[in-house]
Design goal:
Blueprint lengths: L7 H15 L1 H14 L16 H5 L10 H16 L11 H21 L2 H7 L5
Amino acid sequence: MDKILNITERLEHRKRKEQVETYRDKFETVQRIVHCSGCQYKCAMCGRHMEHSEPESACRVDTEFNLCDSCRSEYEQFKKMKRENTADSDLFWHNREWMALWAAWCEYQRAIFKFRTSLDLHQLTGPADK
C-alpha cells in the first residue's frame, strides 16, 4: 500500500497551473494589487511616495496601516471619533460620509491583507516547481 500514489494533489496542482496560464493577465493584475497594496514606500491611503526613512515613522504601534503623516492624522481622528461615538470635530469635512469612507477603506485594507495571507494565494505565488 505504501507504493500507491495519491494523484489528487498532482491533479489539483496541474489544474491551478492551467488556470494561471489561461488567465495570466487577470492573475498578473491580482498580483499587482496584492503586491502594491503592501508597499512600505507609499501611503496606503493616498498613495504618496514616502522616503526610505519615513516608513519607520509611519509604522507606529497605534497604526495598523502604512500611512503618511497627513493620512495618519486623519486616521487617528477617525479612530477617536469612532471610539467616542461622536461626529464632533473642528474640521467641516469630518462628517458621516467621511466616517463611512474611512470605515470602508479600513475594511478594504483588511480584506486585501486577508487575501494576501490566504493559503490559495500563497500556493499560487509560491514555488512553481512542486
